[in-house]
Amino acid sequence: MLKVDRDVRARKPQADLELCFPGEGVYPERVPVRYLADVIAAIHRIAVPDSDEEEGAAVLIRLIDVRRGSAVFRCVAQESETLLSRLRIVAENLDNPEGADALGPALGPLRRLSEIAASLKSPVIVRRPGAVNGVVARFEPDTYDSVSRNLLVSGEKAVSGNVQRVGGATA
């Protein structure tokens, strides 16, 4: 039998944040792993909007524990204070139409978080573990719709068609 010194064994780190799905009947085994991965990736993209997922940038959030009550997933995060403060800024602007322009880079992640919330029939909540009123952000099924209504989206678009009349000439 191998004897392991207790000081040598790795200790589980303290959780920096919890991802909660408090919907009725939502338990950890009912949350698809893909949804959990998408929530973690969306939060990462909100906190680090310049990250390039195409280049395989490291995700700063890692799962360390799962709790049965309301599907609570405990995570650790590198630079957790920075991540949580950026997430809090986005969350504060969700109900502020004047702050909608600040949400531009977060629009894609907000869409995915809203889709997951709608699919699970549960809000997606990010909170500090053990803190009284520790909710950092709450994403509802309609979060994306309410933000996109107040956000002017710009970009390039191609339109194809046939020219029927030019210069008012008629045949």
Protein model, in words:
- By secondary structure, the protein is of the alpha+beta class.
- The chain is 29% helix and 15% strand.
- The protein has one domain.
- It has a 5-stranded antiparallel sheet with strand order 2-3-1-4-5.
- Strand 2 and strand 3 form a beta hairpin.
- Helix 1 packs across helix 2, helix 1 runs antiparallel to helix 3 and helix 3 packs antiparallel against helix 4.
- The chain starts with 16 loop residues before the first strand and ends in a 22-residue tail after the last helix.
- The mean pLDDT is 82.
pLDDT < 50 runs, ≥5 residues: none
Which class do the helix and strand fractions yield?
Answer: alpha+beta
Q: Mean of the pLDDT scores?
A: 82
What fraction of the residues are assigned to beta strands by DSSP?
15-25%
N to C succession of SSEs: EHEEHHEEH
Largest sheet: number of strands, sense, barrel closure: 5 strands, antiparallel
